[in-house]
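Morning!

This is the sequence you dropped in the shared folder:
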Amino acid sequence: MEKMYDAIVVGGGPAGLSAAIYMARARFRVLVIEKEKVGGQITITSEVVNYPGIIMTDGEQLTGKMRQQAENFGAEFLSAEVTGLDLDGDYKTVHTDRGDFKAPGIIYAAGAHPRLAGFEGESEFRGHGVAYCATCDGEFFSGKDIFVVGGGYAAVEEGLFLTRYGKKIMMVVRRDCCSIENAEVDELKEHPNVEMMFNTEVVRVEGDSAIRKVVLRNRVTGKETIYTAPENDFCGVFVFVGYAPENELVKGKVELDPQG
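The structure's back. Tokens below.
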């Protein structure tokens, strides 16, 4: 199966959908390829209040309307995994697990994935104690103690969201303050169930089928403290320390900056 388009958009998040809207409205034949859920990571955001012209919505509704808008202009969508790109020549080829597709231009909007914090046990407990999405996994830790690693916008936002579920939220921030200052930071600091742990990092997590122990280190004094979950109970560790670009398909094919 090989089909020709004027442009192929790799990635169906807000950037890819925006590109599809503009291309299709300009009467180009455009294909959007997304391997997972059209809408990207914003679909797991429970509340979107900072998109111009939209007072309040959620990520799924917002990107659902973007897709509908693109389709109304004639954009096509394909659920497939892109396995490779050939970028030489006038016509580029996008290889997928559902065939090859050609176009004079490719718009690469593959997005990013959460960065790891790097503490011992992070990979081992990923999916059963260590999480990267409060909307997806917060409910699993209802009534539990929850550590939130990070001090940026995402960490603050997700930390506030987790107060709906956790018995106690402990914000683990490497610096002596959050990297942002806004009303949400103030709300987090004033919340009765939140403890701010500045100049602190997670050293390791321990447990069996779940996390039972979290070892913390003060980055100023070097002193380590050990949190132990109540008997027959467990805790959660949510990591929000930024994102790394999904750039494997373009490595060696296009010039990348130091951040990838």
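Headline: The longest strand covers residues 200-207.

More detail when I'm at my desk.
O.
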